Amino acid sequence: MSAALAFQESAAVGATILPFRRGGQTVGCPTVAQRTPQLQEEERDRLNRLRWLALKSRLAPRPNVERACLLLSTQSDAAIENLANTFFRGLREHANRELSIYRPGTANPSEDEIWLLRLMAAWQSGERTSGAALVAWRVRPEGRRWLRFLSESLAHKL
Questions:
Q1: What does the pLDDT read at residue 64?
Q2: How far apart are the first and last CA of the chain?
């Protein structure tokens, strides 16, 4: 069997896994099985809450993101539903591409949900530079300022 075919077949159907060395140890090819992130219970709960908020935001009226941010910035006790609605609507409007957010309770997270968890964790741990970089990675320049504000506010309310 050629090396190219070994990488194309999954290990579940009996493909030959070509060994290679990493750090003096022989290990199997990392491209054979797709790795799914292992979320801890707290992260899974946070993700399901974000999924519910994203789902609810689809039913809410579509706000003007800039105007909503100005209103929310004057309210120190803004409801999490209002922040989430504006944040997810702003993401839909200003993201580089459509984000994949699964229904609540789905076992494995999407790449976009992993990004969302990292974004919330960055703001919660006070890593403002990381939070801003994560927003810049997925949001077009005209919406970055507003989505930085909304994501940071949402992270502190979770």
A1: 66
A2: 52
